[in-house]
Prior knowledge:
Two copies of one chain form a homodimer.
Chain A: E1 2-8, H1 19-26, E2 30-35, H2 40-53, E3 60-64, H3 75-93, E4 98-104, H4 114-118, E5 124-128, H5 133-141, E6 152-156, H6 157-163, E7 171-175, E8 190-196, E9 204-209, H7 210-228, E10 233-239
Parallel strand pairs in A: 1-4, 1-5, 2-3, 2-4, 6-7
Antiparallel strand pairs in A: 7-10, 8-9, 8-10
Amino acid sequence: MTELVLVGIGTGNPDHLTREAIRALNGADVILIPRKEDAPGLATLRRAILAEVLDRPVPMVEFDLPKRDPAIAEYAARVAAWHDAIAQVWAQAIPPQGRAAMMVWGDPSLYDSTLRIAARLSVDVRVIPGITSVQALCAAHGIPLNEVGEPVLVTTGRRLRDGGWPSDAATVVVMLDGECSFGCLDPAGIDIWWSAYAGMPQQISIAGPLPEVAARIVAARHEARAIHGWIMDIYLMRRRS
Amino acid sequence: MTELVLVGIGTGNPDHLTREAIRALNGADVILIPRKEDAPGLATLRRAILAEVLDRPVPMVEFDLPKRDPAIAEYAARVAAWHDAIAQVWAQAIPPQGRAAMMVWGDPSLYDSTLRIAARLSVDVRVIPGITSVQALCAAHGIPLNEVGEPVLVTTGRRLRDGGWPSDAATVVVMLDGECSFGCLDPAGIDIWWSAYAGMPQQISIAGPLPEVAARIVAARHEARAIHGWIMDIYLMRRRS
């Protein structure tokens, strides 16, 4: 039987790896390295992290990650077809027995598809938690995620664009947002804390009242994406009551 | 100047510690160990984690954690007074210069008061993220936190009791709940994933439709609390649409 270990690796800093993650990577028979055509720097970063934490040579299998099919209009169906395609590629890359490890940015449970893709395969799955960008963001700014006893909503750029400010929480964390969707909100009374490459040496952080810093964040994001060839960013907003 | 490093240590498993956390603890001039009268096992666990990850002897300063004053009726005022009292104790425990480290269960940003207490002192604060119980819970059950593209609300037992099921999310994570507040909900159509000591050897996990497993969770929690002398538990619920 094959075991597939999904290893949360944090936001790109090798020091984010836990003892459990390092042990799992060193104990794997093979490590799967996906390549994204539009962000080759991410595969390079995976290899750099491994170079830092592996005590012994572990075979790596690289594969090209399929892309979403823009011909499928409905979002959930497009994602499901994409996961099917990725599962097929994994099935070829994973040896028929032994232990395969897959490095996952952040944590395998949070806005990540590896658990759903793995469920399409006949493998035993084990999950190793990793530092999420939510935590790296809060650490970068030295702020609590929640206000005392108050809830926090974690959501996506798409939901923010479609639904506006949510009704249930004064604190909102936005992930998967390539479009600076805070621009769709009435910014009055909202504070924002934004970071790109949170927890990494090239970390950029901007915080302040949304009306004052929104344009600066959009410009910084655009520039950083051009310089590094990829960007991972995240932000937290609080509405003053 | 004193630096205070708030080190997220995960949920009690030394393997949850990141390389960054281990380096920070080893690099401290002093490590602060709070003692809780009603849960002495937690200070023992802190010492056990340190014994596992320290490469050199680091001085430890133990202190008794003040309790909340039940005479202060209003919740926010009671918490603020409690944080003031803790800050006074910290001020005595932290040396006038050098680097002090404080171990924080989970992550310093999530339903934890250390950042707010530290803000009352004249110290430089650095935050090192750690694995949260939210992540340990998802890893224990091998489930994603969110549904595809959907939001997640992180909230407290108190909010759930006072406000019922929130309107903005089909997935709700409940923290700080010593009272099994899921019992206040109409359980029809709700699935629950509950874990105590998530990520530790004594981990207990129960999952299923809330009407079927609620009583079992209440009993398991009661029994485990009696056996171990302390309990840290958390749960995730999803409402079927």
